Structures are given as C-alpha cells and as structure tokens.
Amino acid sequence: MSIFDSLPNVDNFLFCISLKWGTVLIAILGILSCSLGVVFHQQHHCLELERYADYIKYIKYVIVIAELWLFVTSIILLIGICMKKPQTATWFMYAAAFTALTVLVLTIAIVTLTKMSMTCSVPIAQTVVAVVGLLIWVYLIIVVKSYQNEM
After folding, report:
1. Could you tell me which of 141, 140, 129 has the C-alpha nearest to residue 14?
2. Residues 24, 26, 30, 33, CA torsion sign
3. Which of 68, 102, 120, 125 has the greatest number of CB atoms lying within 10 Å of its CB?
C-alpha cells in the first residue's frame, strides 16, 4: 500500500487523451520541466547577498538534485510504459511528489531569505509558479496512478 492509493482515478488525460498517451506526455513533460528547472533555478539575481548567498546556493543545489531525480524517473517511466512495468509509475509518482514539494518549500525559503536581506526585490512570481506547479503535478500524478492500475 502506498500513499497514492487513496487518490482518485480518472478515465482520460485532459478529458480526451487516453491514459497511456497521457502518461507518455507526462513523462516527456517531466524530462522537459527538469531540463528547464535546472537552468532556471541556477539563476538568481541576488547571489551577491553577503549573509544569505551561501544558503540560497545550497537550496538551489537541493532543488537541482530533486529535478535530476525526476528527470531520471521520467525516462524510466517511458521505458516502463513500453515494458508494462507498473513499479516504474510508482517511482515516478514519488519523484514527482517529492520534487514538486521540494521546489515549493525551498522557493518559499529563498523568498524568505531574499525578503530578510532587504537589498533585492522579492521573487513572488517564483512562489506563485511553484504553487501552481504543485497543483498541476498533483493532477499529473493522479493520471499516472490511474494508468498504473491499467498496466
């Protein structure tokens, strides 16, 4: 029994795409989002902050590691879809949930440290993107879990 067993099932991805092809698209989205996320999270306009620069740098390294874990499990999920291996969907769901939560929490930490410095503008847009991203990933995990039941 996993933490994902209590999630509801859906019949289609975005109301019209089969679960199999939806899961393939989600795995591809995982690969692309990780690629963009690694580049995006390494850029910060306040890295010259004296007191918090090291903390922000370490937080960003943790985010990159989480993104790389999602990248690897996205590739494994694509292989698992072809070989009908449901455990690859479980690995992907754990990686996606962990990455989305990590990005949200650590983005809030970056915003807090930036606000405490009072020398840079607060990147509120990053927090909004992280919250919306978390909500989107919850739906994507539900789709993968629904397809996992069919594998």
Report:
1. 140
2. positive
3. 102
Q: Do residues 31 and 75 make contact, with C-beta atoms less than 8 angstroms apart?
A: yes
For residues 19-54, one letter each, b for 16 or more C-beta atoms within 10 angstroms of the residue's C-beta and e for the rest, the string is beebbbebbeebbebbeebbeebeebebeebeebee
Asked whether the whole model's pTM tops 0.70, one would answer yes
Higher per-residue pLDDT: 1 or 89: 89
**Angle, CA 134 vertex, CA 71 and CA 6 arms, to 5°:** 95
Q: Convert the pLDDT of each residue in 50-75 to its tens digit.
A: 566 677 778 778 888 888 899 999 99
DSSP secondary structure code for residue 42 in this structure: T
Whose tokens are 């989002």? That residue is 33
With left for phi above 0 and alpha for psi between -120 and 50, is residue 15 left, alpha or beta?
Answer: left
User: How many angstroms separate the CA atoms of 120 and 101, rounded?
Assistant: 25
